[in-house]
Structures are given as structure tokens and as C-alpha cells.
Amino acid sequence: MKWTLALALCAGLAFSASVQAGQPLTHKYEITEENKMFSPPELEIPANQKVKVIVKNLDQTAAEFESSELGREKVIPPYDETFVFIGPLKAGTYSYIDGFHHQSTGKIVAK
Amino acid sequence: MLLHVLATLSAAFPTLIIVFREIMEAGLVVGIVLAATRGVEKRTRWVSGGIAAGVLGACIVALFARSISGALEGFGQEYFNVGILSAAVLMLVWHTVWMARHGREMARDMKAAGEAVKTGQSTLFALAVVVGVAVLREGSEIVLFLYGIAISGGSSTGVMALGGALGLALGVVLTAVTYLGLLHIPSRYLFSVTSWMLALLAAGMAAQAVSFLEQAQAVTVLSDVAWNTSTFIEDGSLAGRALHALVGYTAQPSIMQLLVYAGTLVGMFTLMRLFGHAPAPKAVPVAS
């Protein structure tokens, strides 16, 4: 377990460094989950552009930002926040769900 | 009375489903590994060890979820997943090549001995790691999910605990069904069938590692979605998740994921051809 984690961290550092080097300015957006409800329920982002979406979990229970359409899956511990890069997306509506609470869903609309 | 039971069960159902899904994905791997190692001495303790290590790892990961998440410029989760999936893929490749080399010898030993054989034990560590990784991945999500419910308190906690317990029980039943079902395959085909299943498992895990690299923005080429089969099998459906666990199914794979998937299979096949043939037995003088 230890060496695989060490290996992963080393690989991650190397990749991460190369990614940060040539990063153009990316617009940031925010989604908040509170009482198991996402707001805004429909987030508007520009189409054909990569954006950074910060997802905040204000609840006591862990959440998971999960979208098969967007190919994103990330756990958000309680009272924590994380981010995912979305796009460039063709214009349209994409849905996501809280993997730990399927009744909670949201949409990202690319215009 | 019955109405009360039904009401409780329906309240517990969402939790049951979430726990069951995760247990199922790990359970399928456990079932295949158990079937693939049938007849090998001490395999139960190795597989159990893998499960135990996975459970322990899951608790530790859940405990350090925030630190992992925040590590590596916020891509800690992604790289952690890449790391453990890669380890599992390497172990599966090693096992498959080993089986190609010693499989026939092992089958022969089993037929001759009629009881548990020693050959095949070298591969048990590798398979224990694969089981451990599968249990850790799914287990960490369950632990995080259940922990939050536990500490949130309130009247719903008991109901959700019930849902979790039922989900776990169902998942274990599914694992047993998978294993026993595979054992119905005639023993002369069991090795090749399980080897293929493990090869597809490896390809699926490799492709999934790529999807995490894409999520971490480390891989950006060939990221266009190749096709969308959501109309046939949705990613979130039970069938979708079962197929995902077994063969790495995903409804909207990127081109890179497909390449890595195919590449893993081709690579494994190539390695099997290169290293998979046991040297010819030395000629033994026969007393005349």
C-alpha cells in the first residue's frame, strides 16, 4: 500500500507540475450543496470552453459529484470543497448527481 | 405492523442501493478471483487477507479523505485512484503471464492430486492485491457515506444502518452467486474463462485510471467522447455498474480510454506470447 501511494504521489507531482506550467486563465464557477440540494440547480457556463467548477459541500455528510455525461467522479468530504474542470463542452444540458444521495441532482448548461 | 415494516424498508432502500452497488463492484472481483484460484492451496486466506487489507485501507482513506482530496493541487483523489488502479493492473498482468506459463502444469497437478495444489501460490499475492484494491476503492466510498450518516444522528440513522446492513448482505450473496455460478463452468475451461475475465478486468481498470488522469487534466489528448451507449445501458444503472466492474464498461468512453483498453489487452497478449511458455521439460533417462 505504502509504495503504491508513494508512486502515485510522485507521478502526481510530476504531472501536476507540468500542468501548472502552461495554464491559461480559466473561469471559475461554483456549485454549493446544502441540505442535499444543489445551487444553482442549473449552472450556466460558456460552451466550447474549459472552466473550473468549485463544488462546496456544506452538509455534515459526505457528497460525491458524479456525472457520467461529463466523465467526472469526485468525493467531497463533509464541510469541504473540491473542484473539477469541465469542458470544452458542446452547447447543451449535462446532468450530474450526488453519488451518495441520488435524489440530489443538478444540471450544467453550456451556452 | 406490516405497513410499518414496509415503510421502514422503503426508507432504508436508498441507503441499501448505494451500499449494495459498491459491495457488488468489489464482490464481483472477489468472486472471479476465488473462481480463478479454485484448487490452489491457501487461496482463501490470501483472498481474505486482501479483503481485510482493503477494508482497513478504506477506513484509513476515509479518515484522511480531506488531506488526500486537497493534495497535489487538489487532484489528490484522482492520483490516488490512478496509483491503486495501476498497481492492480500490474498485478493482473503479472498473474496472467504467470498463468500462461504455469497454467497447464497447474491443471495437471490438480488432476493428479485431486486436492489443493501448491502450484499457483506465487500468484496469490498478486491477486490479493487486486482484491484489496477493489475493496479499498469501493469500501472507502461506503465508509465515507456511512460515517456521515452515523454522525448526523437523528431518527433516520437507525433506518440507514438497516439499509446499509441489508445492502452489505445482498452484496455478499451476489459474490457467492458469482463464485458458485463460475464453478459451473467445466474445470477444463474454468482457467481460460477466468483468465479472460481477469484480462478484461485489467483493461477496464487501466481505462478507468486514464479517466482519472483526464479528470486531473494530466491527459488531455484524444479526450473526445467516442460514442454514447447510454440509451442501451446507463452508467448509473445496476447493469451498467456490474458491467463496469467486470469489463470496464462506460457509456461515453473517450478515445484515449478505448486505446488504453485495447492496448492493455494487446500488451497482455504479447507478454503472454513472449514469456508465457514454460521451458520444455528436460529429457529424463528411462531405465530400460
Please estimate the helix content of chain B: over 70%
Q: How many strands, which pairing sense, and closed or not: the largest β-sheet of chain A?
A: 5 strands, mixed
Give the topology string of chain A: H per helix, E per strand.
HEEEEEEEEE
Distance between the termini of chain A: 44 Å
Return Rg of chain A in Å. 15 Å
- The arrangement of helices and strands of chain B along the chain is HHHHHHHHH
Structural class of chain B: mainly alpha
Distance between the termini of chain B: 84 Å
Strand order of the largest sheet of chain A: 3-9-8-5-6
Task: Throw out a few tags for this protein.
heterodimer, A: alpha+beta, five-stranded mixed β-sheet, 18% helix, B: mainly alpha, 9 helices, 76% helix, 0% strand
What is the secondary structure topology, with strand pairs?
The complex is a heterodimer of chains A (111) and B (288).
Chain A: H1 2-21, E1 28-34, E2 37-39, E3 42-45, E4 51-57, E5 63-67, E6 72-76, E7 81-86, E8 92-98, E9 101-110
Parallel strand pairs in A: 1-4, 3-9
Antiparallel strand pairs in A: 1-2, 4-7, 5-6, 5-8, 8-9
Chain B: H1 2-36, H2 43-63, H3 65-74, H4 76-113, H5 124-152, H6 156-182, H7 187-215, H8 238-247, H9 255-275
Helix pairs in contact in B: 1-5, 1-6, 1-7, 1-8, 2-5, 3-4, 4-5, 4-7, 4-9, 5-6, 7-8, 7-9
